[in-house]
Amino acid sequence: MATSLDWWPSPAKLNLFLHINARLNNGYHALQSVFQLLDFGDKLAFEVNTSSRISMKTPIAGVKDVDNLIFRAAKALQEASNTDLGCDIYLEKVLPMGGGIGGGSSNAATTLVALNHLWQCHLSIDELADIGLSLGADVPIFVRGHSAFAEGVGEQITPLNLANKYYLVVFPGCHVSTGEIFTHPNLPRNTPKIRLQDYEFSETHNDCQKIVCERYPKVANLLHWLLEYAPSRMTGTGACLFSVFDTKSEAERVLSQLPEECTGFVAQGVNRSPLYAKLDEI
Ligand SMILES: C[C@](O)(CO)[C@H](O)COP(=O)(O)OP(=O)(O)OC[C@H]1O[C@@H](n2ccc(N)nc2=O)[C@H](O)[C@@H]1O
Ligand SMILES: Nc1ncnc2c1ncn2[C@@H]1O[C@H](COP(=O)(O)OP(=O)(O)OP(=O)(O)O)[C@@H](O)[C@H]1O
């Protein structure tokens, strides 16, 4: 690995709630959610070359480079901007994959925003968000870089300023496929829409949680355990769960007592993505 890489943050998100309002004709679902960005995540570094070659220097085990959302994001930007430039890409992965905390989507968004700057493509945020949406429903949120209320398939976004709570995020040790949950016949699909101004954590829920708990006892047991300590819920389509705390020390105390088969981290909720704090520094 090169000696002094310039790292770009790729933060995790939590879905503080997830209501499914309808099934759309294209198989996707109309949903409502609050996306809370966290001050914790993966890191990516890019070394620009003039050969137009895009190369993953730190491949992800089990994910072919052509399927890696980072590679796909770089390729999509190369095509959209007509640049002749390429890059070598390094990834420091800490977020569990398939955990509902948006690691892959965030990696794609960081790649779009960083390479737009490094390749000097001058695409607007709207253009980057459109490219992002073609890669995954959650990518636009990370491109726009603000905690938000989301509707539609996740692309209709209203930025939000949320209280900067501390979150204990726990990975129960099993992966849940998003497709598996969204195609389940018993998934609730007609939760009435709420108005943003009526949002309160305690008045909302995650429509995917019951099915995931039924199919994955590890998730159900862990949720039961966490609820003894703090308000707790599943994020996205799982498998990660989170608990909400007012102080870092309370969250860290519960982290230190986690059952053995789980891993977790404590992070603070942030309104603005660390990705944009990095852009500001440049
Ligand atoms: C539900 C969330 O986890 C909330 O953060 C995300 O919106 C899912 O986002 P994602 O993992 O980026 O999902 P995608 O890769 O776009 O879609 C994976 C699969 O999930 C289902 N899917 C996803 C998003 C959505 N609004 N409706 C769906 O039905 C579709 O079957 C799709 O084939
Ligand atoms: N750079 C990447 N990082 C993580 N996963 C990737 C990446 N590229 C492709 N993938 C694939 O995407 C799948 C989902 O990964 P991701 O970490 O985004 O899931 P998630 O946390 O459940 O996301 P979401 O909350 O958006 O559903 C992985 O199992 C993996 O096969």
From TrEMBL:
- SUPFAM superfamilies linked: GHMP Kinase, C-terminal domain (SSF55060), Ribosomal protein S5 domain 2-like (SSF54211)
Indicate the segments forming the GHMP kinase C-terminal domain, all copies.
208-262
Keywords, ordered alphabetically: ATP-binding, Isoprene biosynthesis, Kinase, Nucleotide-binding, Transferase
Keyword match Kinase: yes
Q: In which pathway does it act?
A: Isoprenoid biosynthesis; isopentenyl diphosphate biosynthesis via DXP pathway; isopentenyl diphosphate from 1-deoxy-D-xylulose 5-phosphate: step 3/6
Where along this sequence does the record place binding of ATP?
A: P96, M97, G98, G99, G100, I101, G102, G103, G104, S105, S106
Quickly give the catalysed reaction. Answer: 4-CDP-2-C-methyl-D-erythritol + ATP = 4-CDP-2-C-methyl-D-erythritol 2-phosphate + ADP + H(+)
EC number(s) on file: 2.7.1.148
Which intervals hold domain GHMP kinase N-terminal? 68-145
Could you tell me which Pfam families the record lists for this protein? GHMP_kinases_C (PF08544), GHMP_kinases_N (PF00288)
NCBIfam families recorded: ispE
Q: What does this gene product do?
A: Catalyzes the phosphorylation of the position 2 hydroxy group of 4-diphosphocytidyl-2C-methyl-D-erythritol.
> What family does this belong to?
Belongs to the GHMP kinase family. IspE subfamily.
Provide the protein name.
4-diphosphocytidyl-2-C-methyl-D-erythritol kinase
Which gene is the coding source of this polypeptide chain? ispE
